[in-house]
Amino acid sequence: MASLISQRGWYYSQFFNSHRKPKQARVPLKTKSKKVAQKLHRELEDQYALDKFDPWTGFQNHLQDQQITKDSSLRKVLDHYIEVKTREDWRTNTAKNTTYVLNAFARFAGEFNSIQIVTPRLINDFLNQSHLAYETKKSHRTKIKPFALWMKKNNLLSYDFSLVKIYNNDNEQEETISYLSDSEIETLKNGIKQKVSDDILKGYQKTDLNALWLLDFIDWQRYSGMRISETLSLTPASINTDTWQVTIGSDSFSTKSKRKQVLPIENVEVLKRIATKLIAECSHPHELLFKHKDRRRTSRTFKKYVRICLPQREDINIHSLRHTCCIELLRREVPIYTVQRWMRHSNIKTTLRYADLLATDISKAVGRAFST
């Protein structure tokens, strides 16, 4: 017996069994959409009826029931982990991307070997392959390390996985901060215009369906400092044109911090102009503002034009526009705590890393302050 309940806007499936302790078990559906919640609730009821899901113990079956031990193969444990996390808390894209990386790790390690081969050194060897870019290594670590920690939590392994690092010449590698100058951004935008114009004449792109949407996208990223997934999830409903506040996060998209965030753009005319234009082109309040939702495809398209227009800047990707925003704010002497709030850095140390790149600019600012 189960009922769908709502508390503070969030939906839950609440199960009841007088023979269990406690008699009630509540399962968070992690959505504020009633329609989505009803669908998830029905799925849980079906799984419960088929004895595939126990709301009192959660999605995770006991490892003993799965006959998983310290001698189990990496493939078997990995399949169980993916099944558990997919049901438990992974979103669709998270499941897809994480599974892809974990399968690559399994092939690298030997998927039919015992899980005892999974050591910090093995993970480091996989992460620090020379052909992988830093951002790729960083992304892979966020998917493999939780898997290793999960095995440690379940007493399958006992290693210290704080030793998992991204190395460069025996030192842990720092994130590379790549950003664009004003002239480079203009070169890129003009190059996109010219390339699209040529492609339209040749019939490679359509007049009403082409890559010119990247121009507004580039400016939005450059001035808002938003992450690519945040921007691609925006809809007209995300932007209050009375207060000019951009709400980042929705029922179908959660931010990096797992909570909705607000970006005030009332005095940022360039962002207001782009938002007004894109909202006018939408026919529905929940239509995607930039009409694209595939992060990987967008990244590849952007990178293609970077290679054409700025062949010397192979280090540039879409996230570099977020770096550019932070750098430009600091260069224009915006207070660092204001920059932190605009960029939504959880720790001021992150913002300070950008400031360290601008030691010369900061010196000039301080010199002017003391000379007046």
CATH homologous superfamily identity of the largest domain: Intergrase catalytic core
CATH class assignment of the largest domain:
Mainly Alpha
Strand order, biggest sheet?
1-2-3
Count of helix runs: 14
Total individual domains: 3
First-residue to last-residue Cα separation:
75 Å
Q: Classify the helix fraction into a percent range.
A: 40-55%
Low-confidence stretches: none
Instruction: Classify the beta-strand content into a percent band.
Output: 5-15%
**Topology pattern, helix = H, strand = E:** EEEHHHHHEEHHHEEEHHHHHH
Second rung of CATH, namely the architecture of the largest domain: Orthogonal Bundle
CATH fold field value of the largest domain: hpI Integrase, Chain A
Structural class from helices and strands?
Answer: mainly alpha
Q: Profile the largest sheet.
A: 3 strands, antiparallel
Fold blueprint:
Blueprint: E1 2-7, E2 10-16, E3 24-28, H1 34-49, H2 74-88, H3 92-109, H4 120-127, H5 134-153, E4 167-168, E5 171-172, H6 182-202, H7 213-224, H8 228-232, E6 239-240, E7 245-248, E8 261-264, H9 269-280, H10 295-309, H11 319-331, H12 336-343, H13 348-356, H14 359-371
Antiparallel strand pairs: 1-2, 2-3, 4-5, 6-7, 7-8
Walk me through what this model shows.
It is a single chain. It is built from 14 helices and 8 strands. It has 3 domains: 2-49; 74-172; 182-367, Orthogonal Bundle (hpI Integrase, Chain A), CATH 1.10.443.10. It has helices spanning 34-49, 74-88, 92-109, 120-127, 134-153, 182-202, 213-224, 228-232, 269-280, 295-309, 319-331, 336-343, 348-356, 359-371, and strands spanning 2-7, 10-16, 24-28, 167-168, 171-172, 239-240, 245-248, 261-264. The protein has a 3-stranded antiparallel sheet, covered by helices on one side. A 3-stranded antiparallel sheet has the order 6-7-8, with no helix packed on it. The chain has a two-stranded antiparallel ribbon with strand order 4-5. The chain is mainly α and 372 residues long. It starts with a strand and ends with a helix.
